[in-house]
Amino acid sequence: MTAAAPPPTDVLASExxxxxxxxxxxxxxxxxxxxxxxxLVFSVAADSFLRASSIGTVLYAASTIGIMAVPVSLLMIGGxxxxxxxxxxxxxxxTSSMVSYQLTAVTWVGTFVSLLxxxxxxxxxxxxxxxxxxxxxxxxxxxxxxLTGANLGVxxxxxxxxxxxxxxxxxxxxxxxxxxxxxxTVGGLSVxxxxxxxxxxxxxxxxxxxxxxxxxWIFAVGGDAAAARAVGVPVARTKTALYLGVGFCAWxxxxxxxxxxxxxxxxxxxxxxxIYIVAAVIGGCLITGGYGSVIGSALGALIFGMTSxxxxxxxxxxxxxxxxxxxxxxxxxxxxxWVRRRVERGPGR
Length: 349
What we know:
The chain has 15 helices and two strands. A two-stranded antiparallel ribbon has the order 1-2. By secondary structure, the protein is an all-alpha fold. About 45% of the residues are buried.
């Protein structure tokens, strides 16, 4: 008996989904279309938008959102939220500054103590979530309120004001500033350290999500935690690791704020968590979890950067910025939903 001949090449090719359909099935496609549209609009509306100095400013604005959008998008793919992410950045900066100043130590001591503190807070979020299985909205909302109060209360208790003391004359400040807040200028384009941090975190986040077993676990626990648990996926540990990722990135951004401006206001960061979530949703992450893209979150952050600075360059009324951001969120969610339904129905349906 002879073996059956393989199907002709043209048959196999006909069974593959068209290129356009594959592209539409990518979570970040909607964000890419929106980013191109926003870029074209401001390129026409603002003469200074395409200048090297303006591009550097846009990249900086995008990076300060993108650094946090990377772990927030991974967390959302895993089916959870972190409403404390914004104030956690401020907690990281305040801790680093006050520890360094009050202990008269080198700034690196305060920096590493700050890392331990934010990881402890993020680990606490993951631990409570795993032990109680309460909604992450409730758990992290509680953490948000506690951190907001602690940031203000502890800062006033230690410094007597709502602002930390300057630490620029302390040993280690210059090296910390180089790592977290330096700037490189090439041909008129100034690139701040946050852009390099953002690109590095983006590469690591994409690799973890798409090339590792842990990335499969993230999709599994976000899609159906009970089913993932039934096949042996460590659901609680996976979600705790995702929260620790949020804590690490909050530490990076917090150190940037401190070493850029030397002092920190204790009330900063409130509301930024919503911007991180918006960037992730615009980038294709579903609120329900199990679907999304780290690259998409970067595009969402880039849209935020182009819009926030493009409005200024175009000399439009900046009061409309939040309206535009909300409209982008709604349109992105609708577009992503429509694309998913089209892909799931298949061609011709």
